[in-house]
Amino acid sequence: xxxxxxxxxxxxxxxxxxxxxxxxxxxxxxxxxxxxxxxxxxxxxxxxxxxxxxxxxxxxxxxxxxxxxxxxxxxxxxxxxxxxxxxxxxxxxxxxxxxxxxxxxxxxxxxxxxxxxxxxxxxxxxxxxxxxxxxxxxxxxxxxxxxxxxxxxxxxxxxxxxxxxxxxxxxxxxxxxxxxxxxxxxxxxxxxxxxx
Length: 196
Hints:
The chain has helices at 3-18, 25-34, 39-50, 63-75, 83-86, 96-105, 109-116, 127-137, 141-149, 158-161, 174-181, 185-193. By secondary structure, it is mostly helical.
């Protein structure tokens, strides 16, 4: 097994662990018994899953800043788009079809999940990749970009695992997502250049 295949298998196992409904002692022991080579990864991931969300401490509370922010917010004309009018292009891609879509696009599932949950700034997604994704999903590219431009979504399992109502994360640029995913230079080149 090559190093890339090994990394993909590890990523798949950790993803499966992270979406388990419970991360109790029995679940952890089951995964440790099946995959002892990933013990440290399970412990690290468990710590992340159980840690409280990071709260921003650099919030400015002066009236002028709040007023300027509010004025900027209200100056933006409302969009006449919502998820109901656009439709969810990922609705028909669940389980094996989601995996097949990621494999067909030659990208990691974590990248596709970030796109599905609209965690990416739509304007930062390269046009060749967006068009390739739209073709693979049989969904118009302009509607796909409009869907990605909607506010981020809270993952379905997040509220189950949280004591408080979870909030959607801040959007990041596509390039930052790729860096965070640790993809190789060849994978990155394929995403930015390939049209098939």
